[in-house]
């Protein structure tokens, strides 16, 4: 995250005993320079020095503005660049781009949160179900921290959605209340969270510790989805799915794209959680880096309503509500996944990114089509011929060609 030297020194004091040790600003600057961690002015970036990185980022974020590009350069290329340099780059190399103003285009809504961990707001995103991709997120509204952002082939199974929540609170402990739109996929979170709250506070017996928000009142996750898609190229990349693929390669698409997209979403989540949002004069909640507000609410004059979980509580709920052998937890069928993994290993485990994903999809689809052809030959061969060494040798050679000759 980007912070001034003074802010870093101040935050470090909570990580060591100040009665025994001390760290001043001057000493910290010497240590930082000695480690090669240079600030914006010390890196001396210009329009030309950032051009290669900007071209690379524009492939994935073609509509990002100056503020977001500064953050992307810092988190993805470790380049600390001033906003003026980025604006100068736009003026020189992207003069034809039209600036998209937000003024008078958004409807302002009020949202209340008493403090950190007052509630988690969860929501699914269904616009990409036609691609076989289902998304789900959980937000801590007071800090604006993204608790999870997951992509899978389904977001309608209560057990799957519940695992997102349980994995999060197992690491970070539990909020007071959860909140979501009406929908059966959220029944798991509603029931499990209510049980955990009653486990830790018996006076809550007979109450529901989950809010059902109607008529588009669950606004925080919706804002998160809007911000993600506004500047990302993911939407354009996935539109190619409808023209390049058919039903026969849907499993291949799932096997390749879901892990890659999850890495992209994890990177986006980390960048948002470690970047201070632009100051908003209408916002009364603390301004700052979401992770810092979440980890140190006292420094921002905020309350923390986190509930420390007792040992064994999550395991009890998980065993009660989640069947780990359910088919929804499989990315693809086991046999198909083993075949794809074998092909991937034989290819040398190439890196899958926004440039290579579609070429890799086409290659793996060709491998799969040849495999299906071989299986047809195999099943139509007589049992006696199949038992012969010659036929087995022939099939082995053909399977090798499936991987290498395409």
What can you see in these coordinates?
By secondary structure, the chain is of the alpha/beta class. The protein has three domains: 5-93, no CATH class; 119-329, Ribonuclease H-like superfamily/Ribonuclease H (Nucleotidyltransferase, domain 5); 334-404. 50% of the residues lie in helices and 7% in strands. It is built from 18 helices and five strands. It has helices spanning 5-12, 25-34, 40-43, 51-58, 66-77, 83-93, 158-172, 187-200, 219-231, 234-239, 241-244, 250-273, 290-295, 313-321, 334-346, 357-380, 383-387, 389-404, and strands spanning 119-125, 134-140, 145-152, 177-180, 210-212. It has a five-stranded mixed sheet with strand order 3-2-1-4-5, sandwiched between helices. Strand 2 and strand 3 (145-152) form a beta hairpin. The model is unreliable at 373-406 (pLDDT under 50). Residues 115-283 form the Integrase core domain. It comes from Suillus placidus. This is Integrase core domain-containing protein.
